[in-house]
Amino acid sequence: MRVARATTVAFVVGAVLASFAQPASADDPITAALKRKEELERAVQISRANAERYQAVANQFQAVVNQTNARISDLAEKQANAQSEADQLFYQIQIAEELALVTFQLDETKALTDSLKAEAAEESKQLAAQEDLYARHLRTTYRQALISPLEMLLSSASLTEFANRLQAMIFINRQDVQLANEIRTLRADTQDKQDQASTKEKEILGLADQITTQRSQLATAKTKYDKLVAEAQTAIDAQAAARDVAAQQRQSAQGQVSQTNQTTAVLTRQLDEAEAQYEDLAAQAAGGSGLGAFNGSKLAMWPLRGPITSPFGARWGGFHNGIDIAAPKYTPIRAASAGKVVTVGRPYLAYGDTAVVVIIAHGFNFSTLYGHLDDLHWPIVSVGQTVSAGQIIAYVGMTGWTTGPHLHFMTIANGRAVDPMGYLP
User: What is the mean pLDDT of the chain?
Assistant: First the structure.
């Protein structure tokens, strides 16, 4: 058993060391896992980019929906105002229609005016007859006035005839006075009726013209506002249709985002499984370091000071097996504790991963990994070198899969990645 175990360890260490010199064979399970990791990393990057793109499209459609809602609200307000004006005009037109009753009354007044005119004409005829009669009486009275009472007496056949002729003259005189009064009254009444008829006729004409003009103006204005209401409704319908299309497109884009996020989560989980090979490789390298067991509970110091942009644990539906510490490029990175350098360089370059990595073993059961190191300022340590805590080992860079300068820092204990925060002071 001891011989077999030693043989296995020697084989694994030899395979790890050989990976620095040349690409591993295709049937190497670790090599296949690393290759799978690189493929998954690319798939995750593409999936995340697609999710961001779909989300941007969804946001654009949401903006269209918001704009159309605001436009619809504005159009609805204008439509309500136009409808209010149209309703008001409708009532005014009803009032104008009610004025038709006034027109009917005016027609009756006109009939009255015509009647007054007819009565005035009839009275004018009567007045002419009365004036003619009065003129004859005046002529008779004038002729009688030329005969003196003595002559009338002498010319009469008897006293009775004289009395009758005298009484007739007195009657004619009295009748003439009454006839003159009636003529004056009839003339005044006739003139008054003519004046009233003329006044009423003018009022009728003026009011009829006013009603006609007002009805025409109101009808024109109502037609205008009815058109505005119809145009506003048409615009609202068009905006509502555009909003519905944008909402459908937004829903479709959000569905694509959801689907892409699910795909990203699946790929990220697969990537996390593939990144577990980092743990295996670091554990194997530490196991072959020849060091004793790491019994410390804490590392001596932080490898780099800066904000943690991605902690250890769940991330994007997957799992992040280290912490990301942001810092400007070329910032020195220090060994978190004393140990032995077991990996320097690009161990996964043959599979498309250009990340520069340094792994330091602090015991056969514990190691730290420093990733995305700068390649212009190459790490200043080498494999097999013993380093002390705080010693500069490399510089912050952007090699490998990264969107900004930072250090990917891992702690691997007993073959598994653990949260570095539990070991950092």
Answer: 80
